[in-house]
Amino acid sequence: MAPTDLSLLQLPHACREDLAKPRSERIDGHTISIATAWWHTELAAARLPRVSIASSGATRISRGDLFADAARLDTDSDDELLRFLFRVLAWGSGMTLRLNRKRIQAVVDSPSSAVAALRAALQAAREDPAEAYEALRPRNRNAIAYLGPAFSTKVLYFAGRGALDHPCAILDSRVATTLRKDCGWDSLGDTGWPTLTYVRYCALLDRWALEESERFGRRVGIDEIECWLFKPSSQH
What we know:
By secondary structure, the chain is mostly helical. It has helices at residues 13-18, 23-28, 36-45, 63-72, 78-93, 100-109, 111-125, 129-136, 149-158, 173-181, 195-216, 222-230, and strands at 31-33, 60-62.
């Protein structure tokens, strides 16, 4: 199938209506229930005791929490990089823990390469989506086993600390389904997207965000559009 001409795609009206709601409510306050005890047990079993997912008793993580994590993150610290990764995974997984034990084991098996990939990705994410994506998906393969596009792009996204001009957005199968069914990106596959596809995706959301920024008279972040795309069709 020939690549879809993304310059012809228009943002659905339902998304434009959703953008009228406060950003703080839809983005910073987007909170997910997490399996805190499971994560602490698994990380301790993997001999990663210094990596804590949440304070005692905390069972939820918000996008705003992860923005704050990224703002405080010391990228020279291996421990802090791993904590950031696992908190992003906890938020992205919610109560569905499939493959997370394998992701933890992948870090245990090769901690130096995992940390190097994370450090390179986070350093590039605020300026270059292609370089950042390649750091975690070199030659369309996972730099960290079982950390595919759906989770690696969450890492790239949260590296932006919630900045409205951050160029990297989350791309997963639910976002892709909405892009195909509701927006007309016919050539977009289900998963395993190459770097060029991710770059085209970020550019499409950036165009839409700039158009909506003019309409609303405020800066619209690309994550505000991604968040709408992620919702099941029944919620649109």
